[in-house]
Amino acid sequence: MAHEGDGDPGRAAPRRRADARRNERTLLDAAAAIFVISGVEAPIRDIAARAGVGVGTIYRHFPTRADLIIAVYRHQVESCAEAGPALLASSASPHAALARWVHLFVDFLVTKHGLAAVLQSDEAGFEALHAYFIDRLVPVCSDLLRAAADAAEIRSDVDAYTLMRGIGNLCIGAETDLRYDPRRLVDLLIEGLRRPR
């Protein structure tokens, strides 16, 4: 006679793991969105409200603010990395894909600038995260630039690391000055990559 809980134990565990991953992604998406708007010191209750969960749920997943911020950082790096190929496949042109990807990158950078203050006491941890960011995102940006150059939409002498560094410099201060939106300058920069007609 079958009892509740009997059956194939391998079926329930993967489903629970998939649900847990999906729930964690929802939390991280909500935290990233709030951090972009309000900075990394935003109230946890705002993140919980956006995610549609209780504050306790966030603390169960991420016991400290630093834990949450680091998880958001890694989540955003992975989202940016995965977005590059997807945008190339779905955009009207490689230049349009590059522009859309750069906007995701700007959102990430606004959050990233708040990370340094949170991790002041863990310089090695911050350096490891920065290396992870470079290793994951420079190749994605390189692919986007190469596709746009191969389509004769932009100049071919643009280096991904230099472009990303320049975009990063344009984003400095955006998290503390509500009047400054770096996206306008970044748009001008990306438009300036176009080949002269």
Automatic annotation (TrEMBL):
Keywords assigned: DNA-binding, Transcription, Transcription regulation
Entries under SUPFAM superfamilies matching the protein: Homeodomain-like, Tetracyclin repressor-like, C-terminal domain
Region annotated Disordered, chain positions: 1-20
Residues in coiled coil: none
GO MF annotations, alphabetized: DNA-binding transcription factor activity; transcription cis-regulatory region binding
Statement: the UniProt record of this protein carries the keyword Transcription: yes
Residue ranges annotated for the HTH tetR-type domain, each copy included: 21-80
Pfam families, sorted: TetR_C_43, TetR_N
Residue range(s) of DNA binding per entry: 43-62
Highest taxon listed in the record's lineage: Bacteria
Signal sequence residues: none
UniProt protein name: TetR family transcriptional regulator
